[in-house]
Design goal:
The complex is a heterodimer of chains A (about 190) and B (about 550). With about 190 residues, chain A is of the alpha+beta class. Chain A contains six helices and five strands; from the N terminus they run H-H-E-H-E-E-H-E-E-H-H. Chain B folds into three domains: about 80 residues, Ubiquitin-like (UB roll), CATH 3.10.20; about 140 residues, Alpha-Beta Plaits, CATH 3.30.70.20; about 260 residues, Rossmann fold, CATH 3.40.50.740. Chain B is α+β, with helices and mostly antiparallel strands and about 550 residues long. The chains are: A alpha+beta (about 190), B alpha+beta (about 550). Chains A and B meet through strand 2 of A and loops of B. The structure holds iron/sulfur cluster (SF4) and FE2/S2 (inorganic) cluster. Iron/sulfur cluster binds next to helix 4 of chain B.
């Protein structure tokens, strides 16, 4: 990307106003949120959820960052092209890919093995940002449990099965309206 | 002295230097982008990426007259008074146009292209290309075909710079590659039945500025940004090519030639390029062993240190057999070690592996029959220590007639066992036999102590090639768990303080032996010629120093 790229809009950080520099006004403004929640709970409208007795409601499943899934293309093959960009972007180094020549004539490279260490993952979502083909996504599955560390290392099959489980409720990014507008809409609510 | 003007800078050339515009600009710190030009190949000026404005300054009047058209810098000699403008609007526009044209037919499949990250097309696009693509061509998958046993061509990624074709004609002299079709349909190909299979074929992959030519051995394995490159020296033959070892997490993924005008220029042979596989062989010896009740039993290193410390002096009558795979420093420390327990210890040089005949290519690149990197180094050292050079054959015949009294330390480290049955028999006559080796062999099986050896990429020190050029290097990967490189072992047994580092040892060697005097001080990346000092010294001093050593 070049600095003079017309798609880049350069903005300057706005200077702090006198009120912001005084610090205390903003501090008390922040406190009001806490106080509002306190008032609500005292009034009997509890805001915390007693998980696991009670299932939390995920308001925005499409932008929630839970367990990963590997998407499939129209022919049911793994979409991933083994470019390693997610593994490169991953700050926790939890993605391990072994690439190989793909068995299909129309595709060049595919992941022979693709494993994510779900225990090591910090669920930052960098991998789905990095992916050039929308192959890896984070789902809204949050209650991830296992009996051993090995069980928590998800391989390609497991990640594909997560896709099969969630594909109806959570369509792929490329097949829905832009997440940006979704997030904006959600924020308005 | 000729003066060349690059933008607003002056470059002073040596009187008879013949540089082109790209090289002259590089002297001024200006990088002119280029694809088809390569310092080791003929100039075709076909890619037009290096176009610059050029003119001539009249020495009398100081007037500059510019050429009306842009000229390729790769083909324009930099002579006295030549003016190059490398960053004018016209030049920048020309570069952007070349980039745009190249990308019209390019698949832009960077995410799955192995070259991404070290691709000129990619780099130059960011530096000189347009921010946006004006043609509405979607990225596509490149066609590919195999050109030979080691090389795959991704047809659509090629930018037709013809470097690979020229390499096969001019350097390898085998001319397998050619350009077929014309215009926008031009493609690189081989003639049916004549695959690209010469012994230098791997170099075309390094030459290709884009991801068109791929090495089957490396294809899809790693992304290049994971690799760390270490300058090293190839141990495949006694040419001792300068190389880079590309490594990720102590696993080698590829070797690449490193430019060295005195040794290998820009090239290396495929034997060396793929000759590192044994380093990661699971059969490597990874633990020291001791003979107990006629059997080799693995022991830990603490036992080794304790045992050898008491046994080395008590056995006496030592002989050390240096290995041509050891670095000069390691060989020196081994000699020091045996001499420290037995001042009259014999120093010999182990077998020199050899295979076939020297192979010389048209441009002079030679693959040597001698398949070890440091024969000259250890032989010179042994000669200096001993006064005469004792080869393995001579040592053997000596021992056949008169069985040895004392201990024998054989520093092996051979990738393939060089030992014959009579070697084993003779060596076993020693009172204490210590063998270092990479893989279990018949000799190791009869040893009293069998210590694991390190592979060349795990060693640090210097190798002396067949032309007496000494090159230094550091270790590129750590040895497998349980293996120490020779330097560490000898350093520890000698009881020297701290950790083994090769540089001070080399200085010690250079101080002590005239034959290594050229290695004093900083050693440049291209190495030093050990004969320089020898030639400069009067013959008498050389003789006395050899005699006194
Ligand atoms: S294959 Fe590579 S080196 Fe050969 S012409 Fe094409 S771009 Fe140049
Ligand atoms: S480098 Fe000069 S034209 Fe290609």
């Amino acid at each position: 990307m070049q600095e003079n790229d017309p798609n880049i809009r350069w903005v300057d950080e706005s200077p702090l106003s006198a009120r912001e520099r005084l610090y205390l006004p903003l501090f008390f403004e922040g406190l009001t949120t806490t106080l509002r929640h306190l008032g609500r709970s005292l009034a009997g409208k509890v805001v915390t959820v007693s998980y696991p007795d009670q299932e939390p409601k995920i308001d925005a499943p499409l932008i929630y960052r839970g367990v990963h899934r590997l998407n499939r293309d129209e022919q049911g093959r793994v979409k991933c092209v083994a470019c390693f960009l997610c593994a490169t972007a991953c700050p926790a180094h939890c993605i391990d890919i072994v690439a190989a020549e793909s068995p299909w004539p129309d595709r060049e490279k595919y992941p022979e093995s693709f494993t994510i260490d779900e225990l090591r993952c910090i669920y930052c979502g960098m991998c789905e940002e990095a992916c050039p083909v929308d192959a890896i996504e984070l789902t809204s599955l949050y209650n991830l449990t296992g009996r051993s560390r090995e069980e928590m290392i998800f391989d390609k099959e497991k990640l594909l099965s997560v896709y099969d489980q969630t594909k109806d409720k959570e369509p792929m990014r490329s097949q829905r309206q832009s997440t940006g507008s979704y997030a904006a809409e959600h924020n308005r609510k | 002295m000729p003066i060349v003007y690059i933008d607003d800078k002056e470059v002073h050339l040596q009187q008879h230097e013949r540089l082109n515009g790209i090289q002259a600009a590089a002297r001024a710190g200006v990088q002119i982008p280029y694809y088809c030009w390569h310092p080791g190949l003929s100039v075709v000026a076909s890619c037009r990426m290096c176009l610059v404005e050029c003119g001539k300054r009249d020495p009398q009047t100081g007037q500059i007259s510019m050429l009306p058209k842009l000229v390729p810098a790769c083909q324009t000699p930099a002579t006295d008074g030549t003016v190059f403008l490398t960053n004018s609007d016209r030049v920048r526009e020309a570069r952007a146009m070349v980039e745009e044209d190249l990308l019209l037919r390019h698949p832009i499949d960077c995410p799955i292209c192995d070259k991404a990250g070290e691709c000129r097309l990619q780099d130059y696009h960011f530096l000189h290309g347009r921010g946006q693509r004006r043609a509405d061509i979607k990225p596509f998958t490149s066609r590919k075909r195999s050109l030979g046993p080691t090389i795959t061509l991704f047809v659509d990624r090629c930018i037709m710079c013809s470097r690979c074709v020229r390499f096969c004609r001019e350097i390898a002299g085998t001319s397998e590659l050619m350009v077929v079709n014309r215009g926008a349909h031009e493609e690189i190909d081989v003639f049916p039945g004549f695959p690209l299979s010469n012994k230098l074929a791997g170099n075309v992959v390094d030459l290709c500025p884009v991801g068109a030519l791929a090495d089957k051995d490396f294809l899809y394995r790693q992304r290049v940004w994971y690799l760390k490159s270490h300058p090293h020296v190839c141990a495949g033959c006694s040419t001792g090519c300068s190389i880079y070892v590309d490594q990720n997490q102590d696993r080698i993924w590829r070797l690449r030639p490193r430019e060295n005008p005195h040794v290998n220029q820009w090239w290396m042979c495929d034997e060396g390029r793929y000759g590192w596989k044994y380093v990661h062989d699971p059969n490597r010896i990874t633990a020291p062993c001791r003979r107990q009740e006629g059997q080799l039993k693995c022991i830990d290193w603490d036992t080794v240190w304790a045992d050898l410390e008491t046994q080395l002096p008590s056995v006496g009558g030592w002989t050390a057999v240096l290995s041509p795979f050891q670095t000069v420093e390691e060989a020196y420390l081994l000699a020091e070690l045996v001499r420290s327990v037995d001042p009259d210890a014999t120093i010999a040089v182990g077998p020199i592996p050899s295979q076939g005949r020297d192979e010389r290519f048209p441009n002079g690149f030679t693959i040597r029959a001698e398949k070890c990197p440091n024969r000259i180094g250890v032989q010179t050292l042994a000669g200096q220590l001993q006064g005469e050079l004792l080869s393995w054959e001579e040592l053997k015949s000596r021992w056949k007639s008169q069985p040895p009294e004392g201990g024998l330390w054989i520093a092996g480290g051979y990738p393939a066992s060089p030992w014959q049955s009579d070697d084993v028999e003779v060596a076993r006559r020693a009172r204490l036999l210590v063998v270092q080796e990479l893989f279990p062999s018949a000799l190791g099986a009869v040893a009293d102590y069998r210590l694991p050896a390190a592979a060349f990429v795990e060693r640090e020190g210097s190798y002396v090639n067949v032309h007496h050029r000494l090159q230094v290097f550091q270790w590129a990967i750590r040895p497998p768990r349980g293996v120490y490189h020779d330097g560490h072992i000898y350093w520890k047994l000698l009881g020297r303080p701290g950790l083994y580092r090769s540089a001070p040892v080399l200085q010690e060697v250079a101080e002590r032996f005239l034959a290594f005097a050229a290695a004093k001080g900083e050693i440049p990346d291209v190495g030093v010629d050990l004969r320089i000092v020898q030639l400069a010294e009067p013959a008498e001093t050389v003789m006395t120093s050899i005699n006194s050593a």
